[in-house]
Amino acid sequence: MTLKHRKIFSGCVTASTLLHISAFCLLQSFGFWVYSSNKSPSSNWLEQVEKTDRDQILQVAFAEPLSKNKENAPLKMFKTEKEPLTIKLATAVHPFELESSPLAPFKVSFATDQFLISHPHPPSFPLPASSFNLLEYLPTDLEIQYPIQQERVATVPTHLETPITLTPQIPRVDQEVVNHFSFQTEEVSGQLVETGTIGKITPPLPTIDLPKLPSLDELETSSYSDSFETELELVEQEDGKYIFALTLVPKPYLNLEKMNQHFIFLIDKGNSIQQERLHTTKSAIRKALQELSPEDTFNIVAFDSKMEKMAPQAVSPTKKTLAQAEQFLDKIHLGSFFSSSDLYKPLFLTVPGSVPVDEVYTAILLTDSETLGKKGAQRALLNDWTEYNRGKVNLYALAMNHDNHASLLEAASILNKGKCIFSSTNRGLKRKLLKLMKSINTPVAKNISCVAINSSSDCGASLLPFDAPNLYLDQPFVVMGQTDTLDDFILFVQGNLKGRWLNIKKKISFANAKKGSKSLSQEWAVQQAYKLYQTYSIDNNPEHIAEAKNLLEPFNLHLPYR
């Protein structure tokens, strides 16, 4: 760069600098946005504005004409009842913010649009450096009009001297606790004048949902109290107590829907059975299969140390399945001389995983009970299998009178909602089984429970604490019990029908009771002894066996446990 060019460049820079400095000084002298240097930083910002400008700013802010008498005009806090409060705002307020603000109950009008139209260029002024309260600088001639709601004006009785607090009901906007107005009233010239204060809504107490008791129709309960006749037998004991047997006999016109029943026949083919008894057993089962209903199912299991099943699953009694059962029975033969029967395994297979409410499972065991003489077999039957079964399968057994462990087989049947049927001859087994099939072919109710309610005393009738068997159509239902006094009581019987509940209520009186025989006392002793057997199989306490022996000795009955 030449010397000439350097001089030209330096002159341009100098001229530009002087021009910028002059423009900055000019703007500082005449511009409004820069603070004046004549005022001290500590002086109030309102003092820097002229009186007329300040009145104009306040008039624009509140859109109200100023009073002519500015010095002596009083501050009016209340207006007449018919004049509502009107506040004109010159700033934009969002409607939602207005509803949630303390000004929500008042009538508010906006003067923003009119102000912008009439003043295209509103005056501007710098904001103060610190926070301030605008109400401290309001002129004395500015009126603030407060509304008086007519619905809250009331006449104060002459005898009422204490203030009254009225709290309006304000709906909740959301789940959070919101602010609301509570009004404290003061007595002014016989009227209540309200003053707004801020309060908080108390959270409402949670309501308690009380359960509704269902009606009998909702419970699907049917009463059959009039559908059964009662027969009562009574025997007095040596200790002065009474034993009774109450029999419920269904009337001929009783018509209840039959439950589906699943039969499983267990045939003991051990060597101790002998050939003639096995042949009679197979013949009895052939006859029993003819008594099955079309909706029933059945299966056959033959066992000694091993097991054989007719079909993998239970089948319906059709011509094909009955022919299959005939072939299976023909193939059953006695086990070897050294074979012994294992009773626990086939009984274990009879227990299903779950039993529908409207179905019944029945196991019919035909055995000589010789396998129960083994060590541990009694406990396995009375304790282990009974506990595993839990009433899912009703156990019926057929035995001979001379079988060695027939009493233990009878105890297992009674503890599992069934019974043991005895025959004196082999031919009698066929007749006994056929009679049993006819009596249990029509189950109508299960899970039966019986309760005796004594109205006069606490030492009245008590029922035998056993799980009752199922209720069968045309089959008497027997309930045994004991009583200290011959006072009347009420018998309640409940159970599951097919899709409904069974209810039976009977008032029992001993006035017309029949005198029972010795067999009633014997049956009571047997039932109590079987309960003691079951308890002994759980805790191994020999006192239970001794007590059961004392109950059975007067009747020359054998103990299941040796």
Describe this structure in words.
The strands form five sheets. The chain has a six-stranded mixed sheet with strand order 11-10-9-12-13-14. Strands 6-20-19-15-17 form a five-stranded mixed sheet, with no helix packed on it. Strands 16-18-8-7-21 form a five-stranded mixed sheet, with helices on one face. The protein has twelve helices and 21 strands. Strand 9 (260-268), helix 5 (275-289) and strand 10 (297-303) form a beta-alpha-beta unit. The chain is an alpha/beta fold and 562 residues long. It has four domains: 39-137, no CATH class; 154-169 and 178-200, no CATH class; 221-254 and 445-516, Immunoglobulin-like (Sandwich), CATH 2.60.40.1230; 260-441, Rossmann fold, CATH 3.40.50. It has helices spanning 3-30, 51-62, 95-100, 112-118, 275-289, 319-330, 344-349, 377-389, 406-415, 426-439, 518-539, 542-552; strands spanning 86-89, 107-110, 165-166, 179-188, 191-200, 221-223, 228-236, 242-250, 260-268, 297-303, 307-309, 359-366, 393-400, 420-423, 443-454, 461-463, 471-472, 477-483, 489-496, 501-508, 514-515. It is elongated, with a radius of gyration of 51 Å. Helix 9 (406-415) crosses helix 11 (518-539).
